[in-house]
Design brief:
Structural class: alpha+beta
Bound molecules: glycine
Distance between the termini: 63 Å
Radius of gyration: 21 Å
Number of strands: 13
Number of helices: 9
Order of helices and strands: HEHHEEHEHHEEEEHHHEEEEE
Strand order of the largest sheet: 4-3-2-6-5-1-11-12
């Protein structure tokens, strides 16, 4: 009763014009003639992905299907140890994959987290989007869902990723029963790879996908930003799409994908929107993750494309990203807030 009264009072006092002003702003205008420029933007490991996605979009493929086909190249590549097959495992040596996607024209989303044994979580996320009334499936349920669609359960560790994990396990501390691996054997730092891909076609329809094996050697069950809609990626077909790679916990704290799209809604160009989100991340970063001079002790990257086909990317420290403007895919330098530490 009280709620109804207050709602009536609100509408009575404010009037229609004020209510309209409070609604989200309208769609970003397209280019003269009512067209967009087809474009794709991705992380540094996404050069083949943007190229494949744009080939498909040029042939009339839907932007989400094109984006999934693009990122699948990395998911299936055993040499990319940040994604899919060959992705680095959790601390138990088990690969747990995360992915999410959004389809602008239908305003739908799908995601999976902690998925084991399936090489292409982006495809499973798209099935969640298309065939369920849910958005996120996790763990054993996500695997059973994938198997029901005919996916095969496979070993996701490659000989190389297993070796990297064994080396990490042996060398992680001195207070255990594992003998250290000699220093001349390869040890990797703790990477947070991932691929994010955002695609727009010449009608201005937008989609986004992010897929990852997450933080290497993570605590089993840890989920980062990639499968969280609004964090690791976000699409609003009125505005554009954005996504991220890097320390997922930092992205989750500011709803980074969503925030970047909101910056574009307020008129920012994609690169500026990414930079603005990084500044917000910095304000949300606890002191333990800051260097003595105030810079972050981790890197983070945002990638964005707007409905018109402008794209850009930014990171804390200098980096690269993949972009395709409809003519060619290239690796470009990200805008950045800081130089590398000396
Ligand atoms: N951004 C990937 C992750 O943190 O899992």
């Amino acid at each position: 009763m009280e709620d109804r009264l207050s709602r009536r009072t609100f509408f009575g006092v404010t009037g229609g014009a004020a209510v309209a002003a409070a609604l989200p702003s309208p769609a970003l205008p397209l280019r003269p003639g009512g067209a967009a420029r087809a474009a794709a933007v991705s992380s540094e490991n996404g050069l083949r992905a943007v190229t494949r996605a744009m080939e498909l979009v040029a042939g009339g493929t839907d932007t989400l299907d094109a984006a999934v086909e693009g990122v699948k190249i990395q998911e299936l590549d055993p040499a990319d140890n940040s994604v899919g097959y060959g992705g680095l495992p959790n601390e138990d040596g088990v690969v747990q994959l995360d992915a999410s996607c959004m389809h602008g024209p239908t305003r739908r989303a799908g995601a999976v987290a902690g998925l084991e044994g399936i090489k292409t979580p982006s495809e499973v996320a798209r099935l969640v989007l298309k065939y369920t009334d849910h958005i996120l499936l996790v763990g054993e349920g996500a695997k059973r869902f994938a198997l029901s669609y005919g996916f095969r359960e496979e070993e996701l560790l490659t000989p190389e990723s297993r070796q990297l994990w064994l080396t990490w396990r042996a060398n992680r501390g001195n207070d255990d029963d594992w003998l250290n691996v000699p220093e001349n054997e390869r040890l990797v730092a703790r990477p947070t790879g991932t691929i994010n891909l955002n695609v727009v076609n010449s009608r201005g329809d937008v989609s986004s996908v992010t897929t990852t094996s997450g933080l290497a050697w993570k605590i089993p069950g840890r989920v980062g930003d990639s499968p969280l809609v609004g964090a690791g990626q976000y699409t609003d077909n009125d505005i554009g799409a954005a996504g991220s790679t890097g320390r997922g916990e930092a992205v989750i704290m500011v709803c980074g994908g969503f925030l970047t799209v909101e910056h574009m809604r307020r008129g920012m160009a994609p690169t500026d929107a990414c930079l603005e989100t990084l500044k917000r991340v910095l304000r949300a970063t606890p002191p333990r993750l800051l260097l003595p001079d105030g810079r972050p002790s981790f890197n983070l990257n945002f990638y964005a494309v707007n409905k018109r086909g402008d794209s850009g990317a930014a990171s804390f420290f200098p980096g690269r990203y993949a972009a395709h403007d409809g003519k060619a895919g290239t690796l470009r330098d990200t805008a950045h807030l800081y130089q590398r530490s000396s």
